[in-house]
């Protein structure tokens, strides 16, 4: 048995040494590695720090919250009141409005990072991550801005790239023939460049609705493609935010009864949206959100523009020709540009080599909320609840609590393993490690 144990020990040692010496640069991180420096990643890092656990955030872009800073339109505000969008441990400034602007939210995140001394490694794109069972650690391969490659090793890996990592750009027949601009909302900033033009917005979620309103405010002539049934609710009801009122009612009444209340009040305040081409789904807004993650639209003024005829409604597109769009109901119209408000998707399957926790189909955790935050072998997920910042904050606390229970003892064992058992192999320890 001693002989067999010696052979096994040599095999593991050789694999560890090979892993290190074949890497352009090897970095050992004693705490968790967090992939993504958006609100979710920052929330986990702050909660971990509160428990004395260091972490290292790897971010592919050059700034915090790159989706907010680089891929959102200028007029964007939080759709929910600020008290439902706070990250753990730090509220919004009291002088912020109920619905903070994009710029105010980014400022809040930057102050959050300063307060908790969170310093992500920017321009570091994670291209692969997998658990190496022979050594009991995650191996994370990342590439820097100049193409330099690093291999990180850590005991815990937190996936914080979120549900909105990559823009969804559907293929539409005839796109190459259209001739006009076809852009995704991820590159749309303001309607000022579309003044006087006829613009078709594809997608009737919150982004598509707001882009149409922004185009109207810049003297463009927008139309909206409504492909599916959609719930449009007023942003506020009875002097309170619709979301806040819903959360309060759910404490006392079943979801279906709350849904019925929301739809009755919406009908009184907004009228029959189906007469405008906006059919409602069969399921109520809260039940639909709970089952599919599809968020209802909170109207901020777009519906009035639809009622006045400033925004026209069209069904799905059949095909495009030269600056002309043919719709499935047979109508055609001429447009100068098309804006795709077709949303985003997770990119986790492209880099995480793991099949148990995340679905390869949509890149989301297989287990539904509230059980999708923890996998096996030290793998965690934050920002995938389909419940916005409130859901991310809940998961961030859970993750920090879970890691905080065992990290100190495991970190000591890891240090011994790396610096004693790996037979003198040169290992760079991250400056973010304890």
Please tell me about this protein's structure.
The chain has 434 residues and is of the alpha/beta class. 32% of the residues lie in helices and 20% in strands. The protein contains twelve helices and 23 strands. Helix 2 runs parallel beside helix 11 and helix 7 runs antiparallel to helix 8. The longest helix has 20 residues, at 2-21. It is globular and about 65 Å long. Its EC number is 1.14.13.168.
Tell me the number of helical segments per DSSP (H or I, 4 or more residues long): 12
N- to C-terminal separation?
38 Å
Q: Please report which band the strand proportion falls in: under 5%, 5-15%, 15-25%, 25-35%, 35-45% or over 45%.
A: 15-25%
Poorly predicted tracts of residues: 1-23, 415-434
Shape summary? globular
Secondary structure class reads alpha/beta
Strand order of the largest sheet: 4-5-6-1-23
| Number of β-strand runs | 23
* Rounded average pLDDT: 88
Report the oligomer.
single chain
- The value of Rg in angstroms is 25 Å
Biggest sheet: strands, sense, closure?
5 strands, mixed
Helix content: 25-40%
Pathway: Plant hormone metabolism; auxin biosynthesis
Catalytic activity: indole-3-pyruvate + NADPH + O2 + H(+) = (indol-3-yl)acetate + CO2 + NADP(+) + H2O
EC number: 1.14.13.168
Pfam families: FMO-like
Supply database-style keywords.
434 residues, alpha/beta, five-stranded parallel sheet, 23 strands, 32% helix, globular, disordered C terminus
Summarize it.
The chain has 434 residues and is of the alpha/beta class. 32% of the residues lie in helices and 20% in strands.
């Amino acid at each position: 048995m001693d002989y067999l144990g010696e052979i096994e020990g040599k095999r593991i040692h050789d694999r560890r040494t090979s892993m290190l010496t074949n890497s352009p640069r090897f970095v050992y991180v004693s705490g968790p590695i967090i992939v993504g420096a958006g609100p979710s990643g920052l929330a986990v890092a702050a909660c971990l720090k509160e428990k004395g656990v260091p972490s290292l955030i790897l971010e592919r872009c050059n700034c915090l919250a790159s989706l907010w800073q680089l891929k959102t339109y200028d007029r964007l505000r939080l759709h929910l009141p600020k008290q439902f969008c706070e990250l753990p441990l730090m509220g919004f400034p009291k002088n912020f409005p109920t619905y903070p602007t994009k710029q105010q939210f980014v400022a809040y995140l930057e102050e959050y990072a300063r307060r908790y001394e969170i310093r992500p490694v920017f321009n570091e794109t994670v291209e692969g991550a997998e658990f190496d069972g022979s050594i009991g650690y995650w191996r994370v391969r990342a590439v820097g801005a100049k193409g330099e490659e690093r291999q990180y090793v850590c005991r815990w890996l937190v996936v914080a790239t979120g549900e909105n990592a990559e823009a969804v750009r559907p293929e539409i027949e005839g796109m190459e023939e259209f001739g006009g601009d076809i852009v995704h909302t991820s590159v749309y900033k303001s309607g000022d460049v579309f003044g006087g033009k006829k613009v078709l917005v594809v997608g009737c979620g919150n982004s598509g609705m707001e882009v149409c309103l922004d185009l109207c405010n810049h003297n463009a002539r927008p139309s909206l493609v409504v492909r599916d049934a959609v719930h449009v609710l007023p942003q506020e009801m009875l002097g309170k935010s619709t979301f806040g009122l819903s959360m309060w009612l759910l404490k006392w009444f079943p979801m279906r009864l709350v849904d019925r209340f929301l739809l009755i009040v919406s009908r009184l305040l907004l009228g029959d949206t189906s007469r405008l081409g906006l059919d409602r789904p069969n399921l109520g807004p809260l039940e639909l959100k709970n089952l599919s993650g599809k968020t209802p639209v909170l109207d901020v003024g777009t519906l009035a523009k639809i009622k006045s005829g400033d925004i026209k409604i069209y069904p799905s597109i059949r095909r495009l020709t030269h600056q002309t769009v043919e719709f499935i109901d047979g109508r055609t119209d001429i447009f100068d540009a098309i804006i795709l408000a077709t949303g985003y998707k997770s990119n986790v399957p492209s880099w995480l080599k793991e099949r148990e926790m995340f679905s390869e189909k949509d890149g989301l955790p297989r287990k539904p909320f509230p059980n999708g935050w923890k996998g096996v072998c030290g793998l965690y997920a934050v920002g995938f609840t389909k419940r916005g910042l409130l859901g991310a904050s809940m998961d961030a606390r859970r993750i920090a609590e879970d890691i905080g229970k065992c990290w100190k003892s495991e970190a000591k064992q890891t240090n011994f393993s790396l610096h004693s058992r790996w037979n003198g192999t040169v290992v760079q320890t991250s400056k973010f490690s304890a």
